[in-house]
Write a structure and sequence with these properties.
Layout lengths: L1 H7 L12 E3 L5 E3 L7 E6 L6 H12 L1 H6 L2 E7 L3 H11 L5 E3 L4 H5 L3 E6 L2 E6 L2 E5 L5 E5 L7 H8 L1
Parallel strand pairs: 3-4, 4-5
Antiparallel strand pairs: 1-2, 3-8, 6-7, 8-9
Length: 159
Amino acid sequence: MATKTTKAAELKAGDAAPGFEALDETGAKHSLKSYRGRTVILYFYPKDDTPGCTQESCDFRDLSSQFGKKKAVILGVSPDSAKSHQKFKDKHGLSFPLLVDEDKALCQAYGVWKEKSMYGRTYMGVERSTFVIGPDGRIVEAHRKVSVSGHAKSILETL
């Protein structure tokens, strides 16, 4: 498993995006293959309904119609449960799917499940990251250690 995570951490523009199949908050299945021909904005965030994650998700929500005009689909991913995602989505009026990754397989495939530290304590968690995946299934841009402020707008501007 460590090898897979190490390799995924090196994902960069031009690389084939790791394929995936995941369920969203309603139990609907999403796969990278099903979005072939469209640009996919795959953003990983640590936890539903926390300040930074809420701001990031709401920024994507507020720009979702503009992403749609560019034939881009937005998919949020965190290790939270479907129930947590549904509550988060309803509370903030999010208009796009939130993929459930409780086993962290998707986070590991994209190399965003990392050792983190806070107040001298180390733990494993999601490194806030966004991958722009082109219609051909290749990574166009990989953003790691994302700063929330202005991030969604900057992703939109690069399309």
